[in-house]
Structure formats: structure tokens, C-alpha cells
Amino acid sequence: MTPTATGTPRTALGWKLLPASLLSLSAPPLFAFGNDALGYSLLAASVATAAVVDRTLLRHLAIIAAGLVIISLVPLHADLSISHMALMGTALTLAVLVPWVISRYAYREDIIRFPVNTGRKWPLAAKLYLVGVIALGYFILPAYLIRTGVYRNWPDASDPEIFWRLFLGVNTVGIWDELFFICTTFTLLRRHFPDWLANLLQAVVFSSFLWEIGYQAWGPLLTFPFALLQGYTFKLTKSFTYVVSVHLLFDFVLFLALVHAHNREWLPIFLY
């Protein structure tokens, strides 16, 4: 049996891929299609098959599944009422905290990390990439939001209080995305699969979540590559700070584009 880049024989890798794929495939029905029965069934099948295939994989898929279940218990649409923001914020916090606590204190592992101060300076290419992210957001996001009409999935921020709540919500969810999908899901999957495969698996979950948040219509053509790039960027930089910087810069342009889409006379800096 030929070993893979992770040191796992290819035959064993094929068997491990089944439960991991079931976990990833649970995300579209849970978050995109609103079919909880199918989503939970796939999650249960994922954990059950992992129990047969590999006990370490079982532990890791189980805590990812726990996070997904927690997220699925609350509606994820952009309701900016205080009660909904508190409910969603609690669920998102628990979805990150529960896997981390179980991994660290029950499994006695030090796998899930959120590296902020890596001590490494960002090279010129990394800085130029940040500029490129802003440019891509500027050209893509207004066209996507306005042409498809999906900007209506977010509330009109004409009211000053809603304006700041939208700003807070967009940025908070952006940070959380990196905590759960990259630092938790991608990191755990990398223990069992080559980086490219782990990245594909997490990107399915990432983009499914973003669909329910509001990135609908042809949004997956935008969010799936973004999820892959974030995973690849984290692999290269090993820096939570950097991937969050990328995400928040993109989301800042998103925020401005949403304000403009609802009120075209505001922020006439966009082409649409």
C-alpha cells in the first residue's frame, strides 16, 4: 500500500474519506436546503462509520459535528434584532468553544489553535494580496449583490443603529468563520487527509454556511473559491491574524457594498 503525504496508506485513506465526506455533505441540507432530517442523518452516518473505520477520526469528526449541530439550532439569516444577535452569538461561540474544550481537556490534544502572534513578518507578497482582496471585493461584490438582488438578504442600514449593528454582525461572523471552519474544521481534517483534500472538505461546509447567511443565487461560485483560498492561505502563513485580516478586508467592502445597494445615492464609489 502506497502511503499518502499524511503517512496514511491509500487504502486506509479511502475508507476514512467516507465518514469525512458524509460530514461535509451534511452541511448543504443543514444550511442551504433547510432539510434538517437529511443533514442530521448524514452527520449520524458520518460518526457511525468513523467509529468503524478509525477511532481518532471518530473523535475529531464528532467534535466538528457537535459544532455543526449547535450552529444548526439557530436561524442564521441577518436578523439584527438584539435578541437574535444574542442568540446567534451564543450559538456561534459555543460552536467554537465546545470542540476546543473537548479536544484540549477531554482528548488531551493541542491541535486546535488560534495563532495570533506568530512572530513572523508578512512578506511583500502577503501585503499585496491584501490589496488584491480589496480590489476583487470592489469589482465583484456590488455586481453580485445588486444584479442578483441578494443584498435584500441583509437589512437596510439607513437607520444609524442598524448601520452599526450590520457592521458589527458582518465583522463578527467573518472572524468566527476563520475560528470554526479554518482553525477547527480544516485543522482537524488535516490530521487525516492531504491538505488539498481537507481543504475541499471544509470548503463545502464553509460555503454551505455562507449560503444560509445570505450568499445565495450564484454566491457559491464566489464563496467556495474564497473558502479554499482561506484554507490554503492558513496553510502557508499558519497565522489566524492574517486570514482574519483577509476576511475582514473583504467583509469591509461587503459592508460598504450592502449600504450602497440599499441606498444607491450613498457611497457612489462603486460601478453599480
Describe the structure.
- By secondary structure, this protein is an all-alpha fold.
- The protein has helices at residues 10-32, 36-53, 55-72, 82-106, 124-148, 160-190, 195-213, 220-237, 240-262.
- 74% of the residues lie in helices and 0% in strands.
- The chain is globular and about 60 Å long.
Outline the secondary-structure elements.
Blueprint: H1 10-32, H2 36-53, H3 55-72, H4 82-106, H5 124-148, H6 160-190, H7 195-213, H8 220-237, H9 240-262
Count up the domains: 1
Question: From the helix content, strand content and strand pairing, which structural class follows?
Answer: mainly alpha
Total DSSP E strands: 0
Sequence stretches where pLDDT stays below 50 over 5 or more residues: none
What share of the residues lie within helices?
over 70%
So what's the overall shape? globular
- H/E order of the elements? HHHHHHHHH
Strand residues, percent: under 5%
**What's the pLDDT, averaged over the residues?**
94
Count every helix, treating DSSP H or I runs of 4 or more residues as helices: 9
Largest sheet: none
**Amino-to-carboxy terminus distance:** 56 Å
Rounded to an integer, what's the Rg over CA atoms? Answer: 19 Å
